[in-house]
Prior knowledge:
The protein has one domain: 3-Layer(aba) Sandwich (Rossmann fold). The chain has eleven helices and seven strands. The chain has a seven-stranded mixed β-sheet with strand order 3-4-2-5-1-6-7, with helices on both faces. The mean pLDDT is 94.
Amino acid sequence: MWAVKLTKIISLFNQAGGVAKTTTTQNLGYHLSLRRHRVLVIDIDPQASLTTFMGLEPADLEKTIYDALVSESDEPIPIHGDLHSMDLAPANILLANAEQELIFAELREFRLKEVLVPVLDNYDFILIDCPPSLGILSQISLVASTHVLVPIQCQFKALKGTDSLLKTVARVQRKLNRSLKIAGFFPTMYSASNSLDQRTLESIREQLSSLSTIFTPLPRATSLAEAAEYGKPLALCPNKNPAILRIFDDIAEAMEVL
């Protein structure tokens, strides 16, 4: 039986790739840290983009989240401390093996939840960067979470794919994590001058606003790509883009009152 904790555990989840999950995880975590919260970000994507964005080289890491997930001896979660005012549980390509290795694991759906128990008291927020899939790694993330935040690209195809995403969330809520809540939908890759993006954003608001908050859309911006190259949150880079910083700060404020 797991004790009730005040820590908010938020999965950044969408089965589509390229929707700014990693960018949102890193920058939301940083803005929460600016608000004096203790933040852990977890990379549970075998592509290890978050690990790279945080300035680490995945191939050089001896221990990652993979080791804790598949360990039969309760190996602790490896944490790299004080990276841009956040802590990181990193990943590398070995995490891809976890999909197969967890198939026969006892209570596999609760594996990440078990791994997080010893560190919950150390953090106010834990943000999980999920892989672009509906597989076991995303499932164990949702089971471990208190909330799910959904970045969704402002394209019609991406909106259509939301049905599968919501069915996955509903299945977890029904069978494995009844307390899981949707923290909001975050439209991304938005161009205000593109009529297709405008129509898709309106559709997102019409179809999903009854389920949770629709946040201000994240525009397409070279500054975000530059920040990834620097291995830092946008606020710590030369081209800060104040409008985007306000968006992430607004989401951070919303996460505080969940």
